[in-house]
Design goal:
By secondary structure, this protein is an alpha+beta fold. It has 2 domains: 1-40; 47-89, HU Protein, Chain A (Irregular). It is 43% helix and 30% strand. It contains 3 helices and 5 strands; from the N terminus they run ααβββββα. The strands form 2 sheets. A 3-stranded antiparallel sheet has the order 1-2-5. It has a two-stranded antiparallel ribbon with strand order 3-4. Strand 3 (58-61) and strand 4 (68-71) form a beta hairpin. Helix 1 (3-14) crosses helix 2. The longest helix has 20 residues, at 18-37. The two termini are 17 Å apart.
């Protein structure tokens, strides 16, 4: 499903105009991004949670040359599905 399909389903299910559904969807995404940037966990009951995890710097190897390299530390977003979502799949 893409953004257009989600917003049209939201509009149909809620009985609202597509433009209003798109604004609501954009607001939701902005709220999630803002919370993750602040380092907060975002949880949707019955769906799952998003959180920012920090990866430490580590040693690696260039696969072409075999030369050892240092992979820098970075942040990543982790999604943990809820038990009910896992069980429904």
């Amino acid at each position: 499903m893409n953004k257009k399909e989600i917003t049209s389903k939201m509009a149909k299910d809620a009985g609202i105009p597509a433009l209003q559904a798109e604004k609501a969807f954009n607001s939701l995404i902005t709220g999630i991004k803002t919370s993750l940037i602040k380092g907060k966990r975002v949880t949707f009951s019955g769906f799952g949670s998003f959180e920012v995890k920090k990866r430490k710097a580590r040693k690696g190897r260039n696969p072409k040359t075999g030369i050892p390299i240092t992979i820098p530390k970075k942040k990543r977003i982790k999604f943990n599905p809820s038990k009910s979502l896992r069980d429904s799949l």
